[in-house]
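Many introductory courses stop at the sequence. We go one step further.
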Amino acid sequence: MLEIIKAIFFGIVEGITEWLPISSTGHMILLNELIKLDVSKDFYDMFQVVIQLGAIIAVVILFWKQIFPFKKKENKVCLDKNIMSLWGKIIVACVPAAIIGLLFDEVFEKLFYNYVCVALALIIFGILFIVIENKNKKVKINSLSELTYNTVLLIGIFQLIAAIFPGTSRSGATIVGALLLGVSRTVAAEFTFFLAIPVMFGASLLKLIKFSFNFTGIELTILLVGMFVAFITSMFIIKFLMGYIKKHDFKVFGYYRIVLGIIVLLYAFFKVL
């Protein structure tokens, strides 16, 4: 029962931090230190990735009309060309992280999955959010249809940075990249959500295959509870974020990242002592 309660906390943290640009990795590291799941290392490595499926299902449900390309017109099923074009851009943006991630995922994890790297990524991208919001006032792209293939490829390269350096935050990296390219906050956030769909499904599938679907009863329960709570939490957080950025900028998340990065560094320092 205690592990189920812990899984609920993990689901809440995942649902909040996956979509706010504040790094789910950084929060998961701290949470696992505070309420460590009593599971094997292999299961936890899989769990912290596959729990994201709950979060991504929330995106699919909330934005279904914007991402489902099949429309019914006059008793006929037709393809929406604009949505198909959007999916083409999503796929292009996924290419850099997909290629490099598949080839070097374990290498990057061994090199950079540590307190110092995560903390530095939190702080550096926190500073970038503040600097960009202060200086970058020119918005050139105000709708998803205005995104070009060159633009989304560059956004995909920023996503690659998140794949290499844990703590960068996938949503944080893509939003920073989009803002630098003159994309509005709303479009940057929406495209980041959509970009997460193939990325998270692919990463989760790979982790499940690596784990060989070899669950015990309690492990499967922990995973399903975590995913369900992440789904419910994500439904609220995504709606909150989309409403928030219509009136506010991302600087508050930048300040938060810097504070969290300092906390992670201090935690690492005192843990060594």
